[in-house]
Amino acid sequence: MIIPIVKTPNPVLFQTAKKVLKFDLKLKRLIRDMGDTLKAARHPEGVGLAAPQVGISLRLFVTKPTQQSKIHAYLNPEIMTVEEIPPSDDEESDKSTLEGCLSVDRIWSPITRPLKVQMKYFDAEKKQHTEWFEGFKATIIQHEIDHLNGILFTNRSLEQNSPVYEEHNGKLEEIKI
Description:
The protein has 177 residues and is an alpha+beta fold. The chain has helices at 25-40, 135-148, 153-159, and strands spanning 48-50, 60-63, 72-83, 96-101, 104-112, 116-122, 128-134, 164-168, 171-175.
């Protein structure tokens, strides 16, 4: 079942989400529904969805980095280690990625994040995992954990003094905030 995605300025997006305590059928149904919602997201296509984005204050998110990827759920995630990859001499290598959000319509900004993170989390069967994520997957993980902590990518944009763009008819136009 597709769940409506909440939009800013909904207060649930700015709260620290609560730890998942019950690993039951209701939780598995929520994960399935969040996966269905993420798969259905178009314009923009979604790659991650946190429970607060569907109005539920739980430390849970799902990802689907590519169209071919399966939905993966992460419960009570914690980033344990971040690893900065040293900049190369190539000036073209910018560590920022243009980020958007299903809860913030038509707004985009280049955000700089660590390129490699180690995260501890539980799956839906309450099995604990520790895993490294790199590149685009690391960006998704950090973006979704920010949601669980009540932080939007626009907050990161302000912190980093990054330009902010609004999409109009398929084109990005810089806006002042």
